[in-house]
Each structure stands twice: as C-alpha cells, then as structure tokens.
Design goal:
Metallo-beta-lactamase, Chain A; seven-stranded mixed β-sheet; 2 domains; 306 residues
Chain lengths: 306, 306
Amino acid sequence: MSDFKVTVLGSSSALPTLQRSTSSQVLRYHNRYFLLDCGEGTQVQMRKYQIPFQRINEIFISHLHGDHFLGLPGLLSTMNLLGRTEGITIFAPAALVQILTTIFKATGDRLVFPFIVIPLEMDREEIVLEDETIRITAFPLNHRVPTFGFKFKEKFRRLKVNVAAVKEGAINPIHLQTLVTGRDVELLDGSVLRYKDFTLPPPQARVFSYCTDTAPFKGLEDYLRETTTLYHEATFLMNKKERAKKTFHSTAADAGKLAQELGVKKLLMGHFSGRYNDSKAHLEEARLHFNQELFAVEDGLDYRVS
Amino acid sequence: MSDFKVTVLGSSSALPTLQRSTSSQVLRYHNRYFLLDCGEGTQVQMRKYQIPFQRINEIFISHLHGDHFLGLPGLLSTMNLLGRTEGITIFAPAALVQILTTIFKATGDRLVFPFIVIPLEMDREEIVLEDETIRITAFPLNHRVPTFGFKFKEKFRRLKVNVAAVKEGAINPIHLQTLVTGRDVELLDGSVLRYKDFTLPPPQARVFSYCTDTAPFKGLEDYLRETTTLYHEATFLMNKKERAKKTFHSTAADAGKLAQELGVKKLLMGHFSGRYNDSKAHLEEARLHFNQELFAVEDGLDYRVS
C-alpha cells in the first residue's frame, strides 16, 4: 500500500545546509498531494525530486518562522507563471495573508489562480478538511509563535469482504457492491441481506501526524491519538536539553518517548540543528525509548505511512 | 589583478531550474563583498560556493520581482542566527521596507544587527555610495516595475611610479609615498618635488555594471559609460523578440549591440529563460554584434572584472 507516503523535501532546522533544505514535505494519499510547510528553496527541491507540484491543491503551514514558509511566495509565483488556473487552499496562521499581499503588491504578480488562506487559530484539535476519503485536523503546538500540528486520517469507503460468507450465501456481485458500503440490501422477495453478515470491519486506518516545531507539553498525546506514523521534530539531543527548552524545541528523546507512549508504528524524526553532522546520535537517543520502526529523515526520500 | 571579480550565484530568469538558481551575484573588490540581488536560495548558493557571507555589508536589489529578492529575508535571518552584529545597508526600491517589516513582525525575529534600506527612486544616474576606493552609482532601467542598474567604478589611491625618473632623481622612499598620492613634497632646503615629475597616471579604472532586468531604451548607454565589464540580462533570443518586448526584457542581440556600442572589454550575459536548455545560441547571437570577451554565465563561476 504505497498509496499513502510522505516525501521529505527539507529536514534542516532554521539554517539550511548543503545536505538539508529547510522544512517541507509532500504527503501523498492516493492521487492527492498535500504540501506540509514550504521553506526557502522548496520549489527547487520539488523539481529535484520530481514532485508534480501543480497537483498540490492544499498547503499546510505550521507556523510563520522563515524556515517553514519563505518558499511559498516563489512557489505560488512559479505555479502562476506555468499557467495554473486551479485554486489553492492554504491553512496557515492569519498573518500569512498580509505577508503574501504585501509581496504580491510589490512584485505586481497577478495570480491567475485563486488562493484562499484559512487562518489557524484553534486552541484544541479541530477538523480543517474532511471528505469521504480523508479527515484532516489541526491542533496547537507549543512554540515561540503560534504553531500548529496536522493529522491526516484515512477514511475507508468500503468494508472488507467476508469471502467465506459471500461464497456460502452465493451473493450476487451487484448486491455485494452495496453491502461493502455498509448498507443492507432488500431483495425482491422481501428478504434482507444484512451487510454485517457479509463484510468485516475495514483495516486499521492509517494516520499520519506532522508535528513541528514544538516543545513537549501536556495534552499533545491527546491530539496525536490514533497516529500510526508520526513525524516529529528532534532539533536537539538531550545534552542540549536546556537549549531545547529555551527555544521551545524537542530532543530526540522527547520524540522517542512520545512515540512510544502513543504506540505508533513508525517514527520519523527531522528538523535537525545544523550543529549535527549526521543523525546517528538522534537515532540512538530515540531508540532508548521507542522500539518500533524509526527513521531520521533525509531530503529526497519517501517514507511509507504505516 | 583578481582583486575585482564577480561570482555568479544564480543566472535563471523567473523560474529556477536545477542548473540555474534565481538572480544573485557577489561582487568582490579587494576585501569588500557586495551582494547584487538575492533570489530564493541565495544563502544555500553562498554555502555551496563558499562565499564568506558575513563579510557582506552592502546589498543591492535591482527590483522587487520575486526572483531578485525572495532570498533576502532568509539570508538576513541566517546572518542573525549566526551572531552577526555588524550593520547592513540595502539599496532597494522603497517597498522592500514594508515587505521585510511584515515578515519579521510575523516571524518574531529580533535582528541583533541593524539594517537600513536606502530607497532607490532616481530618474537618472546618481551616486549611492562613494569612498576613497570605489564609487557606486545607480540608474533607472526599463522594466515592468521600478528597476535599477548599478555601476561600480574603482578609484585609485595611488598614482603609478615613474621608475626611471625616481631612479634618476634618487628620490627618498619616504617622499615617494607622498608623491604617489598626488601631493608635492617640500624639502628642508626649500626645494619642491613635484609629484607629476615622478609619477604616471593610474591605469584605466575598471568599471563593472550590473544591468537586469530591462528592455533596451534610449539613454541606457549614457548611464553605462566607462563600463569595462558589463553584466546584462539576455532573457530571450531574437526569435522571441516580441515576447521580450512585451515583458520588458532583452535579447542576446540587444546585449551584444549595447556592449559593442559602449566598447566594453567583457560582456557577461545571464537571466536566461527556462525554455533554453543551454546558452549556446545566446553566445552565437551576441557574437554577431560584439567582438570582445563574451560569456554566458554559469552558477558558481567567477568572472574577473577586466
């Protein structure tokens, strides 16, 4: 099931390096592309890693620190130059509106496609987008400026088929198509096929949560409940715990503990401080607390949402 | 004399590619570094090409199209994070102030170092910075938004020594140090050493001009007078002449003709449209008009100011 995966475009913290660009990820769910943060250089990373960026219709900006949004004006401008007409919805702190307005006023860019900014200002978890395939919620994090995490939960359109029961009941395929949507079927002779008799519950929903930048705080685990794959910042190691606290960031140990407490299947760590040459120590530190699949992400790599 | 050279950090037009970043150059004159334009990704290009960016004290922004300034907020933020305290002077269209103010208000970045924006609004050539080593002027170009070119003229602190005359006159080295600054020396016996007798005029001053983005216009050659090395945009080829006209850009032929008319020693062309895979045709087209040193610039390369 590689229809739900995230491509990391940038995994540095504030300072980009030659190995790591500033924060950005593309989350792909079936044929939809969601952009999560858009640091400076994101449009070039998209070219490099062949992301079909005109297919992105929703952008989520966690907070208004430069390394999470300064690539957005250039990306929108490029989409425009390349002839985009389809609208874009941007979920972001409200001040982004004035930033984009001020820039586009100066550049004289007339965007042919409409974009709308949905301001994030919730103080608890709230649904920001839901349709029949996915439910996306946002929730507050604990950083120096208003910052938000996002949770993407897949929704199933169909139940699993109970193959044995369907075979035994010699169910007509046409009726089965209705049963798997969770509806009973009344036959011409007045008898009823109960969907529960011929289907099984859907597989466990996969849930991807994106959680950066934040200091640990009481209540975060509630927002992240049901998460199966967690992306969490790990800017520092424990020996820089004070620095993490002062700057409202997390350590690899914080990320590992939280992931273990949540019981997620997979933890992706990123947003590494430029002071670290590699992420080996981050992996070791998180591993002390978390015993499932664990990655320190790298730019350009895909990670399956488990 | 490699003490006057330009390093190209970005040479694409509006759309960055994997080969060409958006506009930016670092002009080095002796130990001073001037940044010319700062498109998205400039700070990473500086790392890649090992520019000591904390040594930049003056930044020149030609105009407020995204591909010429969107890297500036991130660069200033990075300079700040790395502990810069020395001030920066930015020469740019006035609207840049509001853009930077709006962004830094949202990010909460408190810049430790002062920066001042000198608003460009001249309608003719004007001196924007002059000291005993260099004179920098700015002048209007002809683009869709207010746009300015910049001219950097070296100034000589010392005249050339007339070796034969100095030897014949057996001039004391201490007196010679005064003579080469253009001052006469009165000796104890009342006689006077005339500096003109022992020195020669300085070599021809090198003058670098930066000219992007612009359509050709009457009067540009006056602003560029004395230029010895010209950087000029060549977004299009002649077969896209109408497109160039419509978007207020130049062709390689325009650049070549202007350079020939000015009698410059070296022409550097850049700001190539993403539609061209290489710059071979640009070189051929400009060569039809210009018979001195000619380059289509590449990111990361140094070009000596002749």
